[in-house]
Design goal:
The protein has 332 residues and is α+β, with helices and mostly antiparallel strands. The chain has two domains: 142 residues, Gcn5-related N-acetyltransferase (GNAT) (Aminopeptidase); 163 residues, 3-Layer(aba) Sandwich (Aminopeptidase). It is 39% helix and 24% strand. It is built from eleven helices and 14 strands. The strands form two sheets. Strands 1, 2, 3, 4, 5, 6 and 14 form a seven-stranded mixed sheet that branches. A seven-stranded mixed sheet has the order 8-9-10-11-12-7-13. Helix 5 packs across helix 9. The longest helix has 22 residues. It is globular, with a radius of gyration of 20 Å. The chain starts with 12 loop residues before the first helix and ends in a 16-residue tail after the last helix.
């Protein structure tokens, strides 16, 4: 999977391990329609005290060939798994670009659904020399990086020892921007699950006095690394340390041998402008799709989740929460 055309950490065993403490379990569904294997890690979540669950394959399925025969075979295998596990529906959002994959899914009986993951992102090709990556940034962004350095800010790979400072920054960022952060345990479980295979990094930027003022958690899959969580304090933002930290994340990831860097979402206009300044190309994904197996239960669940997220947005004054379907944040 890590060597596929669209590698994603969300399809790794480590992600299932990270989600297990939140009540998710995983199964793998694999098929072959004649042009090579196709499959997905499907996360299952039980719905209340009854026997039913929902399924979600984030950034799946992964395929050798995403053709009609492969998708038909995968759909049939997934229907059997859904019957066995009593699933109301299974959601997928392939990490593939353009409308083509969605049309193939539609032809196999899938329905277009509300987004869970971000709809677009930017991916930076790190094959060119570092000097080209640097010159590919907006000039103002380069000035901000240099300004932060001259002001005495510095970055470090903090590892697990930096989790407490990471969480404090995430709380501060969430309060200022009006969104709901995860629990410290959720971040810790995620970091540890990926750190077991050396696929997690936790970066901190520090002010001249040593205070941690910006952070990024990055997870890798094969040649690609993604910045899945990040934030900065007001002091960090004023010092432009978020620019310095992101550049250092890109530079050091390239130095370690990785070939692409996913900024992990450009759906929000303000963040899109910030992330675009670091170069790369815009990626628009093929959408979110449901294989509905128990229609009445699925529709009731979707309506309930939409109402829950609308209420949560009103309470927190936030437009940054994802998935009105799952009531979950954008990492699924």
């Amino acid at each position: 999977m890590a060597g596929s055309a669209a590698p994603s950490h969300l399809q790794l065993t480590a992600w299932a391990r990270a989600k297990a403490p939140n009540g998710w379990r995983s199964v793998r569904v694999v098929a072959d329609g004649g042009s090579g294997p196709i499959g997905a890690q499907v996360l299952l979540r039980k719905l209340g005290p009854g026997p039913f669950s929902l399924g979600y394959a984030p950034r799946g399925p992964i395929a050798t060939s995403f053709d009609q025969a492969s998708i038909t075979a995968f759909t049939e295998a997934l229907r059997r798994a859904a019957h066995h596990h009593r699933l109301t529906h299974v959601t997928v959002d392939p990490g593939l670009e353009g409308a083509g994959p969605g049309e193939v899914l539609r032809a196999a009986g899938w329905r277009a659904a509300d987004a869970v993951q971000h709809r677009s992102s930017r991916v930076i090709d790190m094959a060119p020399p570092e000097s080209e990556l640097w010159s590919g940034m907006r000039s103002k962004w380069r000035q901000y990086v240099q300004k932060a350095r001259r002001s005495g800010y510095a970055t470090e790979d903090a590892g697990e020892a930096g989790l407490a400072e990471f969480f404090a920054i995430m709380i501060d960022t969430a309060r200022r921007r009006g969104y709901i952060h995860r629990s410290s345990d959720a971040y810790r479980h995620t970091y540890r699950a990926f750190a077991l295979s050396g696929s997690a990094r936790l970066l901190l930027a520090r002010a001249p006095g040593g205070e941690a003022v910006a952070t990024l958690m990055l997870l890798s899959c094969g040649p690609r690394i993604s910045e899945v969580y990040g934030g900065s304090t007001l002091k960090g933002a004023e010092g432009r340390t978020n620019y310095l930290l992101k550049w250092e994340a890109i530079r050091s990831s390239r130095e370690s041998g990785l070939s692409s860097y996913d900024v992990w979402g450009t759906d929000l206009p303000g963040l899109a402008v910030f992330k675009a300044g670091f170069g790369g190309r815009e990626v628009a994904y093929s959408g979110t799709w449901d294989l509905v197996t128990l229609p009445l239960l699925r529709e009731g669940l979707v309506r309930a989740r939409r109402g829950y997220v609308r209420l949560a947005r009103l309470r927190h004054g936030s437009q940054t929460m994802a998935s009105p379907r799952m009531g979950a944040s954008a990492d699924g």
